[in-house]
Amino acid sequence: MPEAYIVDALRTPTGKRKGSLAHVHAVDLGAHVLKALVERNAIPDDEYDDVIFGCVDTIGSQAGDIARTSWLAAGLALNVPGTTVDRQCGSSQQALHFAAQAVMSGTQDVIAVGGVQTMTQIPISSAMLAGQPLGFPDPFSGSVGWRARFTDQPVNQFYAAQRIADHWQVSRADMEDFSLESHRRALAAIEAGRFARETVACEGLSVDETPRVTTLEKMASLEPVDPQYPSITAAVSSQTCDASAALLVVSEAALKRYNLTPRARIHHLSVRGDDPVWHLTAPIEATRHALKKAGMRIADIGRVEINEAFASVVMAWAKELDYDPARTNVNGGAIALGHPLGATGARLATTLLHELERSGERYGLQTMCEGGGQANVTIIERL
């Protein structure tokens, strides 16, 4: 089977909610990374086969097939099409999978893949919940089939995060320790310049503005998001933010045609579903499935990027997989760096690639929880 290679990966800094990138139109935010990607690589823009972008809540500035409109807003070739993917939080990781699958099928050779999200302009679940309070309504209550199968079971992320914390015996204090470490790692990575190579400055913002200098005392003083979920506060949750990211995925034929140097190979890709009421547990079984399919052990994986939607999600995954926290999200995660929904998968892949190169590790695994109880898993091999 043909191989799919990653040649380049970049991202904007994450702009905090109502921060430096808040005023940037989503199309222009996506265009920014696409233009940089094309300029950094010796492939004529009219020879790209496709643009595949992840985006969630495709309304307002994010509507209208933002993969295609971002490419055009970047001033790039009219003949290149684009398509937008929604697998909830895993949208741009799925976009990476679709690009790799197109290359591995032999039907395409050069694909720009990534994602964009402006959560300041389009708050989470805007499309689904039509202005209802964040996270708590059940958007499926009107579905006869859904109610017949999941009667009276709440479907929201905060319920799931609390349920996971309770089931895996993760206390609020444990999660606050985890969150503080996420900020510490992110700030240390920025100070050491670890993100410099992967980041393209945007609107004067050159480094992530989401990591915070905070304390356990400040975290402990926060009220829960709701009294029903006493362990879940803003401190142990991912941050809303604005960002975009993009990768260049090519075939072996394209490597030779354009004299490109591959940085990584897609070693494995898969996606699995789990109970949608648990909502956030799918990365556990999805990782086990991926390792089995790839013929690997968790010990073979040198670095993991797992989305910190909530601290309890990552901590439960680490307990179940018995994986070293020191090799997980080593430069901080979404609690510090933000979770720009449709862009997060591409952001994680970008950071994972650069961290493999920095550390010298061979294999990296990426996964994240996704709406509806799903999880993608990507394993890449540094070359």
Could you explain the architecture of this structure?
By secondary structure, the chain is of the alpha/beta class. It is about 35% helix and about 20% strand. The chain contains 13 helices and ten strands. Strands 1, 2, 3, 4, 5, 6, 7, 8, 9 and 10 form a ten-stranded mixed beta sheet that branches. Mean pLDDT is about 95; it is low at about 130-135.
Query: In whole angstroms, how far apart are the ends?
Result: 18 Å
Order of H and E elements:
EEHEHEHEHHHHHEHEHEHHHEE
Largest sheet: 10 strands, mixed
Q: Which range does the strand content fall in?
A: 15-25%
Structural class: alpha/beta
Q: What ranges have pLDDT less than 50 throughout 5 or more consecutive residues? A: 131-136
The residue-averaged pLDDT reads 94
The share of residues in helices is: 25-40%
Gross morphology: globular
| Discrete helix count | 13
Total number of strands = 10
Radius of gyration: 19 Å
Question: Outline of this structure?
Answer:
Residues 261-382 form the Thiolase C-terminal domain. GO terms for molecular function: acetyl-CoA C-acetyltransferase activity. With 383 residues, this protein is an alpha/beta fold.
